């Protein structure tokens, strides 16, 4: 099994206008190339058997007849290839000419799809030769085969789950009414577009955005094959801009002006998962003809990459814009809460760690927006058994630099008294030893908030909430959790962005040191003055867990598929045994810690993944994990 991935190609043959024999030979070369790459689908350009720029030659019987003859030759050539080929040609039916796409597989024609939106303006004169395709498919005889012909045909694979192909031709995606909408609602997960989009200044960017948006809007894989060199340049030039997209992302594309083949793997599982989640892909129109074919599913090497940090844009400018946007989202969320209840004071615990640092920065931004004095932000540092000098000093320094009010409440004696009250040995550094400190800190914050008429701002992030890395009714609880929607890997970049853009060099220096400090709850005594409790040594690397979070909560990956993809993404960073170890930890903690997420405080959602019990993750706290653990047990490093 290929874990729900479908290997697809888009290719541009180098053609000669009106030379169907030469063109079919070039098409067959592309078929051989796609077959060698073990692709399951190859999409070729619009009218590529003849060339798109034949002009009035389309009215010549000689050309149309030759195109059909070469189609049959290409059909025969596909035998034994285990490859669906979609190729464009002019096709005559009832003395009328159609701009069509033939779908070929294993020496047979599965169907012929006609173009819906005929362009007839500026450099496009298709209406001079072709008519609009009819939606309801009719059966016709092509080379001795009875095949369906029309626009609304779906090609459904019996051997590969969720592979249902629909076909569009060029302007079908550019027009105001796109047949792709009907196809997706009827169940198409992959749309092939055979195009002859001439090149103009700036058109490539528009074209790319169009395909990205279409694949996002329809939640589908989109394979776009464009005409290129070989077409007539009498009036226009074609660049062979081939693209493969999936749910709003361009997975791969060719360089312009270089006829070539592009290959990638479309994740069918993620498409179906997102459609299930949205619940709007229900068709009231059942007019599509379904053509079934058999293709064996088998595991293949990936021809796509998987970003190790799916929450973080790779482009620096986009990352900076996202960080600024998230800071504003957090601030506006807190602003609304304060305005609604008429509150002018907030209280938060400041530890010198990443989470509380970001919460303090957000609070400062919020108070600036509200026009409130920053001294109304009460930042409370609560040193205890595990507090290091480094984190304490950073907490004090950043609070002072931001102009917030610093309070120091040492909780050692309170916790020691609590241990004495419940009969706990202070030398026993177990869960009780750790949680007592976290709960005491929360009690201090809540009581200070009550005393000053403020609310407690929570600091916990999305990654901690998914893993349950929080003390129930301790740092787990607040009146408003500003970081609740932000994964740890992204949170680091937001703090770094603030430091990079900060005009106060001393404050920036503190923030950089916070970023360099190991993530720790600091609940165990330091060793030689250094932090003795590192979160990632206990629960695993956050970059792995954030990768797991994205692919499980956003894309619905099962353990086997997630393990395979994670190994590919982190090759050279973590070995397979390490990935599998923390994958087990992830699923166990995800299921056992849901009770903490079921009663989370309010907090702003900032991305497409969230765990709020009020909308994003309505999961029973006592759900069985047996199915997931059973699958994990079958995996080997």
Task: Explain what the structure shows.
α3 (179-185) links the parallel β9 and β10 (190-195). The mean pLDDT is 94. This protein is 39% helix and 17% strand. α8 (389-402) packs antiparallel against α13 (505-516) and α16 crosses α17. The strands form three sheets. The protein has an eight-stranded mixed β-sheet with strand order 6-7-5-4-3-2-1-14. With 637 residues, it is of the alpha/beta class. It is elongated, with a radius of gyration of 30 Å. The longest helix has 26 residues, at 316-341.
Assign a percent range to the helix content.
Answer: 25-40%
Strand content: 15-25%
Total number of beta strands: 20
Radius of gyration: 30 Å
Major sheet: 8 strands, mixed
Q: With helices defined by DSSP (H or I, 4 residues minimum), what is the helix count?
A: 19
Attribute tags:
8-stranded mixed beta sheet; alpha/beta; 637 residues; single chain; elongated
Topology:
Elements lengths: L4 E7 L8 H17 L4 E3 L17 H17 L6 E10 L2 E10 L2 E7 L23 E5 L2 E6 L2 E5 L6 E6 L9 H7 L4 E6 L7 H15 L3 E6 L16 E4 L2 E5 L7 E7 H11 L10 E5 L22 H26 L4 E4 L4 H17 L6 E5 L7 H14 L2 E4 L3 H11 L8 H22 L2 E4 L3 H6 L12 E2 L6 H14 L3 H12 L18 H4 L3 H13 L4 H11 L6 H17 L1 H4 L28 H8 L4
Helix pairs in contact: 1-2, 6-7, 6-12, 7-8, 7-12, 8-13, 9-10, 12-13, 16-17
């Amino acid at each position: 099994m290929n874990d729900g991935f479908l290997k697809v190609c888009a290719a541009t043959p180098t053609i000669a206008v009106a030379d169907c024999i030469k063109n079919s030979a070039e098409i067959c070369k592309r078929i051989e190339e796609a077959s060698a790459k073990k692709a399951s689908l190859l999409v070729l350009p619009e009218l590529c058997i003849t060339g798109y720029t034949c002009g009035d030659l389309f009215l010549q019987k000689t050309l149309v007849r030759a195109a059909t003859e070469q189609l049959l030759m290409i059909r025969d050539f596909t035998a034994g290839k285990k490859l669906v080929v979609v190729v464009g040609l002019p096709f005559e039916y009832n003395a009328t000419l159609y701009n069509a796409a033939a779908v070929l597989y294993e020496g047979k024609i599965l169907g012929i799809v006609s173009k819906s939106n005929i362009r007839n303006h500026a450099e496009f004169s298709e209406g001079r030769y072709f008519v609009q395709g009819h939606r309801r498919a009719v059966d016709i005889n092509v080379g001795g085969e009875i095949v369906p012909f029309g626009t609304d045909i779906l090609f459904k694979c019996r051997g590969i789950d969720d592979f249902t192909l629909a076909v569009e031709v060029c302007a079908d995606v550019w027009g105001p009414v796109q047949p792709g909408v009907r196809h997706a609602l009827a169940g198409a997960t992959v749309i092939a577009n055979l195009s002859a989009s001439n090149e103009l200044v700036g058109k490539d960017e528009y074209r790319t955005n169009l395909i990205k948006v279409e694949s996002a809007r329809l939640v589908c894989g989109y394979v776009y094959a464009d005409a290129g060199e070989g077409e007539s340049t009498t009036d226009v030039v074609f660049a062979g801009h081939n693209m493969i997209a999936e749910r709003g992302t361009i997975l791969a594309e060719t360089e312009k002006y270089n006829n070539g083949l592009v290959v990638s793997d479309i994740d069918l599982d993620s498409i179906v998962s997102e459609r299930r989640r949205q619940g709007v892909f229900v068709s009231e129109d059942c007019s599509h003809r379904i053509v079934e074919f058999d293709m064996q599913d088998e595991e293949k090497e990936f021809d796509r990459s998987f970003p190790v940090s799916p929450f973080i844009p790779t482009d620096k400018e986009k990352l900076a814009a996202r960080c600024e946007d998230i800071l504003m989202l957090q601030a506006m969320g807190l602003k609304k809460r304060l305005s609604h209840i008429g509150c002018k004071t907030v209280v938060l615990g400041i530890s010198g760690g990443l989470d509380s640092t970001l919460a303090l920065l957000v609070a400062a931004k919020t108070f600036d927006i509200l026009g409130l004095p920053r001294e109304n932000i009460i930042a409370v540092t609560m040193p205890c058994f595990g507090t290091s000098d480094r984190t304490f000093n950073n907490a004090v320094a950043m609070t002072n630099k931001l102009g917030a009010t610093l309070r120091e409440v040492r909780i050692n004696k309170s916790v020691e008294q609590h241990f004495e009250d419940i009969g706990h040995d202070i030398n026993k550094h177990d869960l009780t030893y750790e949680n007592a400190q976290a709960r005491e800190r929360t009690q201090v914050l809540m009581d200070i908030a009550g005393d000053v008429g403020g609310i407690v701002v929570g600091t916990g992030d999305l990654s901690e909430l998914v893993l349950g890395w929080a003390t129930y009714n301790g740092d787990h609880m607040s009146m408003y959790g500003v970081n609740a929607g932000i994964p740890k890997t992204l949170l680091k970049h937001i703090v770094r962005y603030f430091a990079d853009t900060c005009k106060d060099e001393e404050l920036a220096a503190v923030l950089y040191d916070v970023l360099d400090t190991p993530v720790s709850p600091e609940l165990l005594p330091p060793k030689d003055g250094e932090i003795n409790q590192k979160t990632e040594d206990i629960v695993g690397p956050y970059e792995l867990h954030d990768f797991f979070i994205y692919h499980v909560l956003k894309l619905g990956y099962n353990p086997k598929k997630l393990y395979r993809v994670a190994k590919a993404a982190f090759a050279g960073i973590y070995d397979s045994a390490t990935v599998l170890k923390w994958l087990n930890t992830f699923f166990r903690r995800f299921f056992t810690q849901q009770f903490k997420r079921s009663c989370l405080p309010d907090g702003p959602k900032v991305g497409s993944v969230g765990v709020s019990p009020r909308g994003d993750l309505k999961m029973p706290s006592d759900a069985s994990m047996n199915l997931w653990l059973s699958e994990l047990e079958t995996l080997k490093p």
